[in-house]
């Protein structure tokens, strides 16, 4: 039975991990950064070495293909892939696994005797982590990019997408041209680390993803009044930070009590202005993120949090603005792809469990244009988005082999 080469896959995963490597382990490789662009160039070289046709689309997505040198409606391609950008101080597997395993699968198929009926391709989707906009590359590919928003898309530190892409040699205004020709993708399947602890705790090697959460991000801005922190009486202060803090605590309570068991929420960015210890904060901004696999629950929670922000502001004499930043749609995975993954697991003698993805993934955009699905492998200790993110090498090998046989089934 055809199988992947773990030594080759391991060498490529460790090779990719050099770009943006941190001294204490882990990587920082945001999309369009010099580290990311060097990784992109290296990836194109690896795809060529593996005997694949390569191209880069106007949204910066990298493709390596077997049996075709572009996507076409005449011969729809079975796609796999993930991303090579990372969060700040991230691990070496999030995204990297899906791209390197996809490349390994295509190389193994090219070197083997199986002759798939359909072309196959591996994609590295740009800016999955959403420094400038969640799931940017796959959104462009799936025709979901809002062209009107491009001029104002910016990172948390204010850097504009237009400038970041231009530095990397791309024209952001052309990104919508990355939209795939209609019906040119026959199916999409992505291998990823679980980034949670459910598989490890259950002792199950493979997860078959049934649905993927939607993620909503909003910038909540609290406008108070800057004042002298010594001479202004406590009862006269309009402290914007305290309103933000009050909101953060109450929003957590609201999402936990009103969201059912699966909703989660996080405030990971807080900015206080002018930011001096002897000035009462005049303005505070935070980025509030929420996730749920059910679109209706997510929509309701977003409305309730908006109302909460205004209530908190009113009680403290603070003006509040809620500026939506991004919203991805929760997506179900295609039964046909889930069945292909389960059949691949059965043929390899591996137990599998169905679960939902609590993290957002490019596969949810692909679900809008084709039958889309995902394979999960256990993450050690459920750790992810941190430098010690890891999975056992034999778990990686099992996952890559499940991807290989799922691709062969989907391309048969
Ligand atoms: Zn990822």
The small-molecule ligands in this entry are:
zinc ion
Helix segment tally: 11
Q: In what range is the share of β-strand residues? A: 15-25%
Give the fraction of residues assigned to helices: 25-40%
Low-confidence stretches: none
Q: How much is the radius of gyration in Å?
A: 22 Å
β-strand number: 15
Termini separation comes to 16 Å
Question: From the helix content, strand content and strand pairing, which structural class follows?
Answer: alpha/beta
Shape: elongated
Biggest beta sheet summary: 9 strands, mixed
Mean pLDDT: 96
Give the H and E element order.
HHEEEHEHHEHEEEHEEEHEEHEHEH
Word description of this protein:
The protein has 412 residues and is an alpha/beta fold. It contains eleven helices and 15 strands. The protein has helices at residues 6-16, 34-49, 96-111, 136-141, 161-167, 198-202, 240-258, 295-316, 335-348, 363-366, 393-411, and strands spanning 53-56, 62-66, 77-82, 120-124, 185-193, 206-212, 214-223, 227-228, 264-273, 279-280, 283-292, 319-327, 331-332, 352-357, 372-377. Helix 1 packs antiparallel against helix 3 and helix 7 (240-258) packs antiparallel against helix 8. It is elongated and about 80 Å long. The mean pLDDT is 96. Bound molecules: zinc ion. Zinc ion binds next to loops.
């Amino acid at each position: 039975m055809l199988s992947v080469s773990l030594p080759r896959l391991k060498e490529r995963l460790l090779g990719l991990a050099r770009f943006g490597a941190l001294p204490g382990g882990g990587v920082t490789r945001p999309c369009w950064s010099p580290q990311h662009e060097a990784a992109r160039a290296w990836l194109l070289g690896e795809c060529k070495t593996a005997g694949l046709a390569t191209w880069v689309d106007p949204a910066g997505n990298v493709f390596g293909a077997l049996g075709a040198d572009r996507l076409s409606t005449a011969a729809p391609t079975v796609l796999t892939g993930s991303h090579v950008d990372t969060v700040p101080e991230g691990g070496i597997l999030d995204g990297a696994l899906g791209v390197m395993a996809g490349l390994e699968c295509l190389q193994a198929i090219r070197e083997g005797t199986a002759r798939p009926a359909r072309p196959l391709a591996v994609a590295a989707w740009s800016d999955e982590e959403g420094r400038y906009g969640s799931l940017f590359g796959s959104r462009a590919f799936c025709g979901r990019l809002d062209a009107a928003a491009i001029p104002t898309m910016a990172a948390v530190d204010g850097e504009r997408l237009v400038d970041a892409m231009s530095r990397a040699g791309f024209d952001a205004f052309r990104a919508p041209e990355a939209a795939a020709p209609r019906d040119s993708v026959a199916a999409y399947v992505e291998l990823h680390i679980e980034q949670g602890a459910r598989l490890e705790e259950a002792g199950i090697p493979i997860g078959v993803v049934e649905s993927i959460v939607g993620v909503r991000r909003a910038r909540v801005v609290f406008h108070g009044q800057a004042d002298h922190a010594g001479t202004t009486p406590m009862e006269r202060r309009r402290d914007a930070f305290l309103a933000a803090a009050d909101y953060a605590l109450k929003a957590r309570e609201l999402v936990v009590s009103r969201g059912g068991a699966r909703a989660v929420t996080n405030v990971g960015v807080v900015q206080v202005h002018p930011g001096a210890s002897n000035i009462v904060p005049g303005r505070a901004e935070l980025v509030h993120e929420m996730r749920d696999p059910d679109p209706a629950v997510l929509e309701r929670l977003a409305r309730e949090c908006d109302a909460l922000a205004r209530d908190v502001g009113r009680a403290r004499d603070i003006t509040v603005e809620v500026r939506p930043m991004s919203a991805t749609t929760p997506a179900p995975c295609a039964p046909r792809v889930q069945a292909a993954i389960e059949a691949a697991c059965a043929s390899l003698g591996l137990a599998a469990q169905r679960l939902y993805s609590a993290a957002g993934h490019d596969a949810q955009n692909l679900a809008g244009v084709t039958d889309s699905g995902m394979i999960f492998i256990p993450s050690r200790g459920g750790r992810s988005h941190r430098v010690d993110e890891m999975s056992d090498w034999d778990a990686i090998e099992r996952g890559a082999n499940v991807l290989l046989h799922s691709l062969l089934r989907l391309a048969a």
